[in-house]
Amino acid sequence: MCRAEAHQLYLRKPIFDSLGVQLFVVLHEDIESEVKDFWPRYWGGVVVHDRGRDFYKALGGGKLLKENFISGFLLNPRALSNYKRSKSMNIEYNFKGEGEIKGGLFIIGSGKSGIAYQFIERNFGDWAPLAEVIEICTQMQKVTRG
């Protein structure tokens, strides 16, 4: 499902470019066949491998946000709904690799301004609201230029 969210963000790259926002995808594992399938098909920008999973630990306040596949996905109506939404986009999926780590999104300001926005995946397949992400980036641009 992360492929679908990444793809939706990357489709809006011209908006982020106009706001002066750089986009990065952070992967928690490096499976060569998966990276080759992901980039540039679903994400054409910078891809970073987080060997220590520090990005993911930061989302979880210092620990990885993990949930068992059965309880977190198969028995979770929200996660199943998220999966159906992603499948309707004709995005190909598989179950290769570590599938229990949850992700999210950070918007980090320039200089020492720190984290302007954080979204944590609570249910597998939750997406940061795109309108909200774009609005935060727009506000950051106004502050930077003002």
Task: Explain what the structure shows.
With 146 residues, the protein is α+β, with helices and mostly antiparallel strands. The chain has one domain (2-141): Glutaredoxin (3-Layer(aba) Sandwich). The protein has helices at 2-11, 13-18, 32-38, 54-59, 69-74, 77-87, 130-145, and strands at residues 24-27, 46-49, 104-108, 115-120. A two-stranded parallel sheet has the order 1-2. The chain has a two-stranded antiparallel ribbon with strand order 3-4. Strand 3 (104-108) and strand 4 form a beta hairpin. The longest helix is centred in the last third of the chain and has 16 residues, at 130-145. This is Peroxiredoxin-like 2A. It is found in: Cytoplasm. It comes from Pisum sativum.
What's the β-strand tally? 4
Number of domains: 1
CATH topology: Glutaredoxin
Output the CATH class name: Alpha Beta
The proportion of residues forming helix, as a percent range, comes to: 40-55%
Q: In CATH terms, what is the architecture?
A: 3-Layer(aba) Sandwich
CA(first)-CA(last) distance: 38 Å
Question: Poorly predicted ranges (pLDDT <50, ≥5 residues)?
Answer: none
Number of helices: 7
Task: Give the strand content.
Answer: 5-15%
Global structural class: alpha+beta
Q: How big is the Rg? A: 16 Å
Overall mean pLDDT: 89
The helix/strand series, from N terminus to C terminus, equals HHEHEHHHEEH
Largest sheet: 2 strands, parallel
